[in-house]
Amino acid sequence: MTCRPPVTHAPLFFCPSNKNMSFLSLSSPPSLSSHFFSSSSSDYLFLPPPLRSASFSCSSSSSSSLSKVRAQEHLLMENRSPNYLAPPVSSSRTFLNARTEQELLSGIRKEAEGGSLPSNVASAMEQVYHSYKNAVYRSGDPRADEIVLSNMTIFLDRIFMDVVDPFVFNSHHKAKREPFDYYLFGQNYIRPLVDFRNSYIGNVSLFCEMEEKLKKGHNIILMSNHQTEADPAIIALLIEKSFPYIAENLTYVAGDRVITDPLCKPFSMGRNLICVYSKKHMNDVPELVEMKRKANARSLKEMAMLLRSGSQIIWIAPSGGRDRPDPLTGEWIPAHFDASSVDNMRRLVENSGVPGHIYQLALLCYDIMPPPPQVEKEIGEKRVISFHGVGLSVAPEISFSETAASCQSPEMAKEAYTQALYNSVSEQYNVLKSAVYGQQGLEASTQNVCLSQP
User: In which pathway does it act (predicted)?
Assistant: First the structure.
């Protein structure tokens, strides 16, 4: 297999040749002031937000401002956020002041015993601490103790703050970057769980193609499978160095569970979201069905308005939820796409009055944070967290008109197009699986999927 000349915007990537609406349900350390906000801290720790440019770029050039660092540090230590009202004196100071694992876990129990934390949330906080700790330890990082305590201190603090004063998501939620940067918090929490030496990206040059289209005011839709609550962070972590604009400006179509679960909300607050109720959970509570339908109608209007404005990049999982293993074989494969979801999205793009493009995106990251084996009605699933390699791949657009040309009816055309998108995602997924789990690495590249590493 011959080599294609490297793309100029990502010189670290190696690339072999390449010829040719229902919605988804995401030891004692130094002091916080010297550690969380120091420019010399590990990349795995929570750091201050970089200065961000509004322009498009194929390369990252982030820097930090000392005044911004101190301002955010002051805000954090004062226990305030943009949606936060002063809680009782015990407050999140319990977690921010913790300097050891024992103090952090004791803080959870103290707040639960004092009635500030519901017992189920407190239990979930303690369970996720141990799961996260075990995963980071498996990475072999010599600073694992420090990383775990630092990241979990911030995470538990944010959970507690939201319990005291719950944040309510709008139909169209914009990532909360200031004065506390929830996006960066999510990136730095998930980063130590990713084995980057065993992670791969397929067809990276297409991301630069997308940036060029976004510059021109076009819209981009990513039709994707969905594996874990960490999917948005995984996508951004794999492309943030070469494609920071896409990483930070992606809008995700998100189900109600990720904006209501106390352990998921802090991560969701850092992403741009169109919030919907998943078809899989639409009938969980019969008396709420009508309210959910009206809410979804509002979200569709928000989506239409967003697309009319142009230069939007939106991720959607038309399967309506996360992939799950086959109950007999235990094998993970992308969940099948819902044709009505695909068609609704396609028509929204076509009717926006702005040029639009639909790409197929494949994600392989289930070992990072796998969902429960079956779809659960109740909020508050147990988190099982691991350190593992991951994969991301994107494929060129598939023409709807060409796919529909041989179909005898609109319904057949809709099904054929959906199947074509799904087949593309499955093909890419299998290549990523060979690279990560088959230990083939870059040699797993095919004629249609050119692998590189972040």
Answer: Phospholipid metabolism; CDP-diacylglycerol biosynthesis; CDP-diacylglycerol from sn-glycerol 3-phosphate: step 1/3; Lipid metabolism
